[in-house]
Design a protein that fits this description.
It is a single chain. The protein has 8 helices and 19 strands. By secondary structure, the protein is an alpha/beta fold. Strand 15 (about 250) and strand 16 (about 255-260) form a beta hairpin. The chain is globular, with a radius of gyration of 21 Å. The structure holds glycine. Glycine binds near residues 261, 262, 305 and 331. Glycine binds next to loops.
Length: about 375
């Protein structure tokens, strides 16, 4: 590829894409107004859960394809950086407390099995045998294919990987804007100067919709969707599976923390941790597992997921020449990191991706705005 590719946004998505493009031989530079891997990438719980997240259609297929890539992705990062991203594959347990909940889970298990995944219903006794700290359930579902990673470790590993590959990382920039005409990108303007580039990829997460310099015909709406989250200090193996309940999810970490998430709030760019938010999470968690009540709260935080009007990400070419997007992953950015890197790198190179990404084209926002010849 002629010239440098500039990626705006050094979250998991931007860093994974930089790594992928650098592996393919491109000269890549990443710019960010903050610290790499620190926004939604750092705030997330790291669940890899296409079934539990209630997805369907092409989006489920995309998420399942990304989940399938995770073991090799984790192994490659370990090989490249010596960092372990703590991929945990015990699976997810979703509890049900009444007949309606059990019927819903049975349908989800049948759907997962029809897709070839290992999923099964567990009796109340079997559930408590696997997870003795849970409150009694009517039944539960075990989604064996679902997993989690430590997203903060993943951010560190991706950063180390791209630095090892010679990718230049400009972080903490006071401002960044796209330099473009109505027809094509010319590069990126930053507080430190102009970076000429024939290809610019907007991977700015919840800020992708407010990037300055993007012509109207290529702008896409992105709404920040706040998630408050907390961590409990947990005795080893008190909870072993991710517990995906209606009012809270519990994600065990290898480092002894239990992540409890997350609120879903439309509150603009507000990232305050609130009394009501933490109350809701703790109430949900203690209903699921009263045995957690004496654990210490070791951390609270909030992050902004990038939401889109139709709930689907923007992956690929964005209405003007040289402009691409990789954002809008809402609740599934960690899960979609490997597949996003692959398919967006494919579209940048002008190749057809191995999975169908037509539904995720950013051009769906402006269907009539294709550049005139
Ligand atoms: N993936 C779960 C969340 O965003 O809360």
């Amino acid at each position: 590829m002629e010239g440098e590719v500039v990626i705006i946004g050094a979250g998991l998505i931007g860093l994974a894409l930089a790594r992928e493009l650098a592996h393919r031989g491109a000269a890549v530079r990443v710019v960010d107004t903050g610290e790499p891997g620190r926004q939604a990438s750092w705030a997330a719980a790291g669940m890899l859960a296409p079934s539990s997240e209630g997805l369907d259609g092409a989006f489920y297929d995309l998420c399942a394809a990304s989940l399938a890539r995770y073991p090799a992705f984790a192994a490659a990062l370990h090989e490249e950086t010596d960092l372990d991203i703590h991929l945990r594959r015990e699976g997810f347990i979703t509890p049900a407390y009444d007949d309606r909940g059990v019927a819903k889970l049975e349908a989800e298990v049948a759907d997962a099995r029809a897709r070839g995944f290992g999923a099964s219903m567990l009796t109340s006794v079997d559930t408590l045998r696997l997870e003795p700290s849970l409150a009694p359930v009517a039944a539960s579902a075990h989604f064996e294919h679902e997993a989690s990673v430590d997203n903060r470790r993943l951010g560190r590993a991706l950063r180390a990987a791209v630095e090892h590959l010679g990718v230049r990382l400009d972080e903490g920039l006071p401002w960044v804007r796209l330099a473009a005409t109505q027809r094509r990108v010319n590069g990126v303007e930053t507080a430190n100067g102009f970076i000429p580039a024939p290809v610019v990829i907007n991977a700015a997460g919840a800020w992708a919709g407010t990037l300055e310099g993007v012509p109207e015909r290529a702008r896409v709406p992105v709404e920040p969707v706040k998630g408050q989250i907390l961590a409990l200090g947990m005795p080893a193996n008190l909870i072993r599976h991710t517990i995906y309940a209606e009012h809270a999810y519990l994600v065990p970490r290898d480092d002894g923390r239990l992540i409890v998430g997350a609120t879903v709030e439309r509150a603009g760019f507000d990232t305050r941790v609130t009394a009501a938010g933490i109350h809701r999470l703790l109430d949900g968690a203690l209903r699921v597992a009263p045995a957690l009540r004496d654990l210490a709260v070791v951390e609270t935080w909030a992050g902004l997921r990038p939401g889109t009007p139709d709930g689907l990400p923007y992956l690929g070419a964005g209405s003007i020449e040289g402009y691409f997007l990789a954002t809008g992953h809402l609740r599934n950015g960690v899960l979609l990191t490997p597949i996003t890197a692959e398919v967006v790198a494919d579209t940048v190179e002008g190749r057809a991706p191995r999975v169908d990404v037509a539904a995720f084209s950013p051009e769906r926002v402006h269907p009539t705005s294709k550049a005139a010849p």
